Amino acid sequence: MKVLIAASECVPLVKTGGLADVIGALPGALAGVGVEARVLLPGYPGVLSRIGATPMGSPGQGVDLGPPPGVDPAIAGAARLVEATVDTGAGALAVLVLDAPGLFDRTGGLYEHGGADWPDNAERFAALAQAAAGIARHGIVGRGGARGAGPWRPDVLHANDWQTGLAPVYAAQWGTGVPTVLTIHNIAYQGLFDASLAPRLGLAPAGFGSGWEFYGELGFLKGGLMAADRITTVSPGYAREIVTPAFGMRLEGVLAARRDRLSGILNGADTAVWDPATDPAVAAPFSAADPAPRAASRAALAEAFALEDTGGPVLAVVSRLTWQKGIDLLLGALPGFLATGGRLVLLGSGDAALETALGAVAAANPGRVGLRIGYDETLSHRIFAGADAIGVPSRFEPCGLTQLYALRYGALAVVARTGGLGDTVIDATPAALAAGAATGFVHDPDSAAGLADALARMRATWDDRDTWAAMQAAAMRSPVGWGPSAAAYAALYREIAAA
Ligand code: ADP
């Protein structure tokens, strides 16, 4: 079973959020269940340099496969496909990179620059989708790279989020015969563009009114949802939520109509990368069987953020700073928590207003609130290893990864009851505590009072050391790996390939 996974981000090459972690980890997990996956990515400068290729120049380690099949030169300009193998730290990852310097060789964000979307995002990601569908249609012939020569054509094309949402549309329009899956990692981002772009992107006019058209605009995600043979999202909870107006962000009707094609498959953590027993960022290795050395990471975190010793727990947040993530709710609930000796460590970046508000709270609470504005992968590992609890107060959360990393690293999770958060954290109810299953404190979403209550429960449990230790042990034993989910994807691929 061969699968082409098309996406706009992938760890360890390029990451702005959880999508990248998932795309980087899933292929390795799929290999364990007999699926050979290759990942198609845009040729951002960072991606090309990490695979040892310069844009359209000397091929370096990457193998130049020539012009990408399916990609319209009128959109992409000069372009080639580069094949490479990447070491993820957990194994080898086979990637195909669309090197189109006119679209991707630029400095700035992946999707925006200086706060504004790149004006040619439609062309950039239509070309990526064309490459995905083109590979599905024609296959590719290796040039003697790590995998040797010979054509490679996927049995299934797996697109992800709006950036590759048009891949199932082109695949259907071109009659590739290759079945398609589209995974929604976050329905808030839909890829909406002026409908007049459609002819330029080679989209059949029939799509207007039935396919890619979305309230008069061209919707990349909408088109993909209509065209894909199967739709998945990253947790069963989010799959239930997105067919409702409160969470569907205007796509609830489309999804409800295709409910028989929609399922939720939980994301996992890459347990080879996220392993406190081998993680070089951790102050001293620890594990569920031997949690005591975790104290060294706890002390290191307090020192790194100059925290006072109040005797209370350290709550940490590692997050994009956006409305979705409920950081404003955290600011509302924080004074009560700090008043009981609680402390906060926050690593994140995003909305300027939230950054400013957090800066003010940190300045007003030295030794109690430690703040790092920015993006720092290594520091994030240290935080999961050293914090007592992690907070994820999201208003909606398709799956959420930080709570999975926290559980594996022995931090209890304080999370909103939404999407994948509710699917992955077991609330400390009397029954769950009695069963030894509780791993965190779950609260009503979109409620500062609900969050405050969960923080108060966490704070009270902190004083009951035996209960805390039992919850921490349960957290570290939580099944956060990819095993069952990789098997679920493999079963889905096999089902649609056989149909
Ligand atoms: P989302 O994809 O919505 O941002 P997820 O929880 O699914 O949320 O994934 C976020 C990923 O990005 C996690 O791996 C998290 O550790 C990481 N992350 C978020 N913000 C930062 C940051 N400022 N520094 C380091 N890692 C971060």
Produce the secondary structure layout.
Blueprint: E1 2-6, H1 18-31, E2 36-42, H2 45-50, E3 63-64, H3 73-76, E4 80-87, E5 92-99, H4 101-104, E6 112-113, E7 116-117, H5 121-138, E8 140-142, E9 150-152, E10 156-160, H6 166-173, E11 180-184, E12 192-193, E13 213-214, E14 217-219, H7 220-227, E15 230-233, H8 236-241, H9 245-248, H10 252-257, E16 262-264, H11 294-304, E17 314-321, H12 327-339, E18 343-350, H13 352-364, E19 369-373, H14 377-386, E20 389-392, H15 402-408, E21 412-416, H16 419-424, H17 430-434, E22 440-443, H18 448-462, H19 465-476, H20 483-498
Parallel strand pairs: 1-2, 1-10, 2-5, 10-11, 11-15, 15-16, 17-18, 17-20, 18-19, 20-21, 21-22
Antiparallel strand pairs: 3-4, 4-5, 6-7, 8-9, 12-14, 13-14
Bound molecules: adenosine-5'-diphosphate (ADP).
